[in-house]
Design a protein that fits this description.
This protein has about 100 residues and is mostly beta strands. The chain has one domain: Sandwich (Jelly Rolls), CATH 2.60.120. A hairpin with a 2-residue loop joins strand 1 and strand 2. The two termini are about 20 Å apart. The relative contact order is 0.30.
Length: about 100
């Protein structure tokens, strides 16, 4: 058993910091995003579920806009282009399958 904050942080892009735990087939991430931070459009083989704990994250997923706030989640299918802008400071959980080797 571990505390997520004891995991070394990984800066994804400026203003976006994640703490990632890896199983054999999935990755769990606790992510903090500073207001105004932008995650450029990208895609990956991993299916992703993003759950918002706090804040407002505006995303474009597969060409469709969606605004996520506390308590909301979105499932991002494998290979689907997506991007995000934090309208406020955000805390969220990301789950990926298969495991993100690039986040280890």
């Amino acid at each position: 058993m571990q505390l997520i904050k004891n995991i070394p942080p990984k800066e994804i892009v400026a203003g976006i910091t994640g703490y990632y735990a890896h199983g054999a087939n999935m990755t769990f991430g606790y992510v903090e995003i500073k207001a105004g931070s932008h995650l450029p459009e990208h895609h990956h083989v991993h299916e992703q579920i993003t759950y918002i704990i706090e804040g407002q994250l505006d995303m474009i997923i597969g060409g469709k806009s969606c605004s996520l706030t506390a308590g909301m989640y979105h499932i991002i299918p494998s290979h689907t282009p997506h991007s995000a802008i934090a309208k406020t400071h955000c805390k969220l959980i990301d789950a990926f399958s298969p495991a993100r080797e690039d986040y280890k």
